[in-house]
């Protein structure tokens, strides 16, 4: 949040070890693809670990958006653990639930989705960010 980004973080975990981590950086890097989930996947790849992500778990504070969901499915990540849902353009609860799609032949079965982990803490972070945005708009 201090860099002006939404408070979203993601960890990619394999066999109990963090292999990738990411924080939301779309606004500060001026690159819409710098969402926390994609950044965690990029981080794992750039560490040179040649991570087979099929048995990884991705932990994220917010439900992955459609873009992130595509990247998650491309890398065949097995489990997604979500703090809070964001149903407008997200990959599970929106009208385009890419993370739940089972009719795309190039992808394996959908990942297991676990929702509501540290939900209150994630909601508090999200509320704080929304308050910052509101105050900034009021100042204009």
UniProtKB/TrEMBL annotation:
InterPro entries: APOBEC/CMP_deaminase_Zn-bd, CMP_dCMP_dom, Cytidine_deaminase-like. Keywords: Hydrolase, Metal-binding, Zinc. It is an enzyme of class 3 (hydrolase). The keyword Zinc applies. Its EC number is 3.5.4.33. Residues 1-95 form the CMP/dCMP-type deaminase domain. The keyword Zinc applies. It comes from the Bacteria. GO terms for molecular function: tRNA-specific adenosine-34 deaminase activity. This is Nucleoside deaminase. It comes from Rhodocytophaga aerolata.
